[in-house]
Design goal:
Order of helices and strands of chain A: HHHEHEHHEHHEHHHEHH
Distance between the termini of chain A: 62 Å
Largest interface: A-B, 49 and 49 residues
Largest sheet of chain A: 5 strands, parallel
Strand content of chain A: 5-15%
Oligomer: homodimer
Radius of gyration of chain A: 21 Å
Number of strands of chain A: 5
Number of helices of chain A: 13
Shape of chain A: globular
Chain lengths: 289, 289
């Protein structure tokens, strides 16, 4: 029985950011506070998680095809090399790509900057029935926007409220949101940057600017602390995921997504026709007559 | 040696539609003219194909990130239940979803009908570095458009030329195109429609209109014959894939995509920085100072 309890323990409860008590400085990026303790254990569980994710995604897609408005949005944030791309590959890669909407938010273009900061985000909200995944998001506007002083302090300070209002609006329109902060240590980041630089097939992922960002590691953590605490709401909770171990990070995000989809509990739509009538029509037809 | 030759035999050469000799009526939808003869054999080969597809896709994505213009477009066409969706799931599902752009073309909306028939297609052409997959396409405009007489004959007749010009234009802009016609028999279609109607988790995929379309099976085959022959060009070849066996269909399309990507032969971009200089910078930095 103890084993079963452990299995059904909510991974989201472990990782959820609770305003008032959450301290980013107290998080160990190499921790494995729940679930598998080894890569092999994670792989075994991932196979089951993947199969269930795939089923739930198909039901969600079907529900959307039948006129349902619900969808899911997984937001991924984290410093360079924390594994936003790898998470998409290993977590979102488990479901039918036709049901996914993946959006990557890079440095805003000049056209994007002519609009409010949520404009480009709204355009990428997943359609009903889809699982949307954001690789970076509107949170960049209270992270790099704050650390690099791209806007006055008064501006980024008001954005937390605007973000909460935006996410509440999404929730009200049928979007179930889960936000994962992939927490990596500076030591592991260095290791991964070195690995990128030494591998010709990975060098394209590196940008000399990455070191300038890295120099502001502590400032980013402060900015994350505020973003996570100010914007972890019942409508759109933040989860802080230890990301030094790739297998654990992938497993944890997959579990968070799975629990989120289980809560959504999508249902196959009832047919708008009578299946028995259609079966009879099919038995009569002969397309080669 | 004989075995090796068999392995490297071009699957595309077997399935390519050659104008002048191609006869849709001569194709057996249950045939397995090349490659594995069993589901198990196909699964074994698919694992290898999937790994290579994944590698090539990553290189293509990297090339695009480095400013390259090239991309791939896989067009899927076929009658109901021929498995366009299943092919996307099993073939495109083998690569990182972040590198995919999947577009599904349903009955045109009123807004779409106010434009020329290629307007909505152009909007979904994959960006550089991506693999685009079209679930139905501009070919619907010479298929249902012709069979259901949605436009005058003079209009659909001129569309073959417009399509060829459009695809040549795409090719010139860096898009490598492969088009697969998934060929299913009316008997197998009936079997699959019955299965959909009997399974509550599949009923959402069925529409009573499907039987009306099925009644015109022969007319659709005639329309496909013309579309395939008139629009199989060196820039944008058509491949006719036997689709009665799902495992064979998935294997064949995966192989066609693999050979197409091998021809593209994407290359990782050379770094725009000096990796040695960056490694030295990294060794000096200490973000927690």
């Amino acid at each position: 029985m103890a084993k079963k309890s452990a299995q059904v323990q909510s991974v989201r409860d472990i990782f959820r950011v609770t305003p008032g008590t959450f301290e980013i400085a107290g998080l160990d990026p190499a921790a494995t506070p729940v679930g598998p303790k080894s890569k092999a254990g994670a792989a075994a569980d991932m196979a089951e998680v993947g199969a269930e994710l795939d089923e739930l995604q198909e039901a969600l897609y079907a529900e959307g095809s039948g006129g349902g408005r619900r969808r899911v949005l997984l937001v991924l944030q984290g410093l360079d090399t924390s594994g936003k791309g790898g998470t998409i590959r290993h977590v979102a890669g488990q479901v039918n790509p036709q049901g996914l909407h993946i959006a990557s938010f890079k440095k805003p273009t000049r056209a994007e900057l002519r609009h409010d900061f949520l404009w480009r985000i709204r355009r990428q909200v997943p359609e009903p029935g889809r699982i949307g995944v954001f690789d970076r998001s509107h949170y960049e506007d209270v992270l790099v926007g704050r650390v690099d002083e791209l806007v006055p302090a008064a501006e980024w300070r008001r954005r937390y409220r605007l973000i909460n209002e935006f996410e509440a609006e999404l929730a009200a329109s049928g979007v179930t949101i889960a936000k994962c902060f992939l927490h990596i240590s500076p030591e592991k980041q260095k290791e991964r940057l070195v690995a990128r630089l030494r591998n010709p097939a990975k060098q394209w992922k590196y940008n000399p600017h990455d070191i300038d960002v890295r120099a502001k590691f502590s400032q980013y953590l402060l900015a994350y602390q505020d973003a996570l605490v100010k914007c972890s709401t019942p409508d759109a909770p933040w989860y802080a995921i230890p990301a030094d171990r790739k297998w654990y990070r992938n497993w944890a995000v997959a579990r968070v997504l799975l629990e989120t989809l289980r809560d959504v509990a999508p249902v196959y739509p009832a047919p708008s026709y009578d299946p028995l009538v259609e079966l009879a029509r099919l038995q009569e037809d002969d397309p080669l007559r």
